[in-house]
Amino acid sequence: MKKSLTRKYDFGELKKESMDIESIPKGIRGRMKYVGIDLKRGSGSYVQIDHSSIYQTVSEYLKSLGVVVMSTIEAYEKFAWARDYFWKALRVDQDPYINLTRNYWRHGYFIYVPPKVKVIQPIQACFFVTLKGIAQPVHNIVIVDEDAELNLVTGCATMSNEGLHIGVSEFYVKKRAKLTFTMIHGWAPKFEVKPRTSVIVEDGGTYVSYYVNLYPVHDLDMYPTTYLYKSAKGYMTSVLLGRKNSFMDVGSKIEFLGEGSRGEIVSRSIIRDQAKIIMRGHLVGKAEKTRGHLECRSLLLSQQASVITIPQLESHVEGSELTHEAAIGRISEEQLYYLMAKGFTEEEAVSLIVRGFIEVGLTRLPPQVRIPLKSALRIIERLARG
Amino acid sequence: MLISNVLLRVKDLWVKVGDTLILKGINLTIGENEVHVLLGPNASGKSSLLMTIMGIPKFRVIRGEIIYRGIDITRLPPHKRAKMGIALAFQNPPKVDVRLSHLVDKLRSMYPHGKLMNNDLEIDYLLNRELYQGFSGGETKKVELYITMLQYPKLALLDEPDSGIDVESLTSIANFINKFIDHGTSMLIVTHLGNILNYLNKVDIAHVMINGKIVHTSRNPLNLFKLIYESGYSGLIKLVGVRDEKELN
What we know:
The complex is a heterodimer.
Chain A: H1 2-8, E1 15-16, H2 26-34, E2 44-49, E3 52-58, H3 60-65, E4 68-71, H4 72-78, H5 96-103, E5 109-113, E6 118-129, E7 134-144, E8 149-158, E9 162-173, E10 178-186, E11 190-201, E12 206-213, E13 219-222, E14 225-228, E15 233-242, E16 247-256, E17 262-271, E18 276-285, E19 290-300, E20 306-315, E21 320-330, H6 333-341, H7 346-358, H8 367-384
Parallel strand pairs in A: 1-3, 2-6, 5-7, 6-8, 7-9, 8-10, 9-11, 10-12, 11-13, 11-14, 12-15, 13-16, 14-16, 15-17, 16-18, 17-19, 18-20, 19-21
Antiparallel strand pairs in A: 2-3, 4-5
Helix pairs in contact in A: 7-8
Chain B: E1 6-17, E2 20-31, E3 35-39, H1 46-54, E4 60-68, E5 71-72, H2 78-84, E6 86-89, H3 100-110, H4 137-150, E7 155-159, H5 167-183, E8 186-190, E9 205-210, E10 213-218, H6 221-240, H7 245-248
């Protein structure tokens, strides 16, 4: 597999060039905005184009508090302590794409928030592909130290129609810390996208993630896993729009390792044209007094669209209360007629239902990260009607 | 007697759902500011008449016409009729994946007059819920009525606003309807048990529908309802006489 991928895609050379915001072409910045990245906003940014980490910044204030935003390669070279966080949440042999990323490591973001520091105005990270047929294997590391807080907004976009993006991410949420992570994907019809994410949430910590996929993609598969220790909380939401010939196999997993941990996985998919989606969800109860809920719902908007929903619950101890609900449906005539009787055209009725269907989990997020997500959901509402 | 301009005229209306004939030659005229009630046993076609006036596509007009404010609307889609001032409160509205507050906002911008209206139905606590999901019977009736009246209609078609609710809800629903009656909204109200009649400020005309036909029309609705209450629809039929008895069974 590795061999064929290295033949198929150009893994390029590791590069680092610095650009200021203004010198990033307008076309690229415009596309970044679709996936929620506005470089003029935010308290810090990391931007990578192709194999080059081009822009890393953090506000003077956060810098003075010890917040770090840089390429993982730079962090690995610069800080001995940073090395302790490499390959601890993920194993290299876990998956061929992870292995590939270790061998062809092309940057990725490294973000560190020291104890008790609260980064409320989000830090942004963006991966962009401009060259046709390249592979972009990146390794990201985020550490939110004890009692600290971080709002991290990420987005991925491309100008090329074809390529491979592998995002290997290891997130560490330390004791009583909180990480809110949003990710908006806007890839292209011939892209293969392989995020590999693992999140360790220590005692009393909280991890909230929100993932949105906007555009068609050839093959997207991801299975982010969150490990919750004592009294930790994890909430993972994904909203997927499958269009054209997209194939997506997307799931989330939470392992309840510590007593009193709680978690929830909520997924929504809207599927039209010939798109196929596999939606997975997996809760694993390994400690007492844990509670988890899994909810997967799909809305099919065409005859050729298809979905498979695979919810899994696994309990290894007594006192781990896990539940799930899953539903697949189409918009019923009854609902359409009802809304038409209230004065909406058929098209307006469909977007109203789509909007209602995908609007989940936003209230769990701090207001600072909601803006890009809301505009992403509006894009879905518009694209879903065809 | 009320002298008013004609708002709605239904002429010799025959309607099918699938292959089944549901309405068989309905004639009905509703004037401006008039309140009509439509009585009748279960499955007599009352809801179907309302759905047809609203233009729900499932109800296929095979003969006759619907004239609203002088315009033939028989073939117009429901959203156009809604914009012209017709609104329907469904008897059993479907569960919809739309948050109530979101729908209310959209309706308010679509029908700017709706801003004038106060919400006396005490449904604020339901605003963040998805439409009719997990609502009680009374909550559903109130919300559906509220949404319908947000359109500030000239003609409100209310399908059993009084069924399956407690007395307290009935009072607040009736009070809410009364505000619109006082304001001059024309109404066609379907009621199965007639509970609501005693609470409304006025009811001008009552019709009895049986087996897809309007068999009797009265300008004394309360008396008519009393008669039905005491001797049932069969008693009414005996009393008023119906030409085609066979049709009724």
